[in-house]
Design brief:
This protein is an alpha/beta fold. Strands 1-2-3-4-5-6-7 form a seven-stranded mixed β-sheet, covered by helices on one side. A five-stranded mixed β-sheet has the order 8-9-10-11-12, covered by helices on one side.
């Protein structure tokens, strides 16, 4: 790599795997690098933020970002997507109806403005928003070059109807698996259940995450510090109690 993770303000999690926490809403963006390919996980909240993410990701990878996975269609995770022209965009089945439709884009724009994003900035991002071309129903194995495969898993509905998790196996012996959870898991605050949440399914979605990563994985929340399996289990149990969901 031409620069180190630390030089661009990112946190290295494993070989070729890292993330950054964006200002404003403390949203996490992930990066997985391969030989000639790179996957970015979520895109930030504006075109300018997306462009900055792309520049830093490509400096780390040493080549262009070729793939973009959107964990769920909320403004702070997707409004920078148009900055990744030419990348193959992935999302959970149905996310395209939000990101590609006029009504969905207007709702994203309005939500961004309600949360403090400049109105013109939000409008520009919504007008140019890129919808996923590749829709994940169950699981999708993404090849990023020799020795680097990533699993995209549709684990929702839960936080939204369209939740996508990303599992990155350890590339070297002894390295942990890394699971990018989107907002299915939050560390810096209580998980947010908006009007599009499906609380009755949320604990089961966290069981899916735990099944994907296992006991020794690193779990990367949509907001906050990296956590372990025990944290995810505690959040699962808290959500089940909060929403009155029977869980064994």
């Amino acid at each position: 790599m031409s620069v180190t993770w630390e030089e661009v303000g990112w946190e290295r999690l494993a070989s070729g795997v890292g993330r950054c926490r964006l200002p404003g809403w403390d949203c996490t963006v992930g990066l997985v690098t391969g030989r000639g390919a790179a996957l970015l996980i979520d895109a930030g909240s504006s075109l300018a933020e997306g462009a900055g993410l792309r520049a830093r990701a490509e400096a780390l990878a040493g080549h262009r970002v070729t793939h973009l996975a959107l964990t769920h269609p909320h403004f702070d995770h997707v409004l920078g997507a148009a900055a990744f022209a030419g990348a193959e965009v992935f999302g959970a089945v149905g996310a395209d109806t939000v990101l590609g439709g006029r009504r969905g884009r207007e709702e994203l724009r309005a939500d961004a403005v309600r949360h403090g994003l400049d109105a013109a900035t939000a409008q520009e991002a919504a007008d140019t928003l890129v919808a996923p071309r590749h829709l994940v129903c169950g699981e999708w194995t993404l090849d990023l070059g020799p020795g680097r495969q990533v699993l995209l898993a549709n684990v929702g509905p839960a936080h939204t109807p369209y939740d996508l998790a990303v599992l990155v196996p350890g590339e070297r012996a002894g390295e942990p698996e890394v699971v990018f959870c989107g907002d299915l898991v939050e560390e810096s605050g209580e998980p947010q259940a908006g009007p599009d949440a499906v609380p009755s399914h949320w604990p089961a979605a966290l069981d899916r995450l735990l099944g994907l990563g296992g006991e020794d994985a690193l779990y990367v929340p949509g907001h906050g510090a990296v956590v372990d399996a025990a944290f995810v289990r505690r959040q699962r149990d808290a959500l089940a109690a909060r929403f009155g969901v029977s869980h064994e």
